[in-house]
Amino acid sequence: MRKLVTMLVLLNSTGVLAISAKDFCRSYEEAKGPTELERRVHQCREIINSGISQGRFTFEQGKAKTCIDSFAKKVEDKAECKAVLRGKKADSEVCESSFDCMLPFICRGKRGAPPGTCQVPLKEGDACDNRTMASSRFITEQSRSVCAEGLTCKPKDQVLRCLK
Fold it and tell me: Can you give the residue range of the structural domain that contains 47?
């Protein structure tokens, strides 16, 4: 059963309702289910804390609140959820994870062997392999695929391709 916890809601400097990174991680991961919850919450907090402290991205509190609120409506606002972490790296810059890259770029390299570089997502029909996405020491980055928006990396004629 999915549930959202009561969270600490803050008013940021622009008067927008916001949420702390700690509470965002707890609520976001609880909405995804109970499997390995504590590990996922810890990983989420580690991603955010290390990225902010190293200056790779910023945590957008207002977007985090909108993302979490969308779960209560049982429809994830993917655009808001993808924008919670705002990357600072542009095309071809070295990255540790896709969170480091400005949208729509993704960090591509070899999983578990960073660094990679920020690159444009693959187009429809391009050969793909989600394992080539650099993900630092973190297991997964479900918010961004190696394929462009609306496409999924799936098998076709024994080759993984970006397809609708």
Answer: 1-86
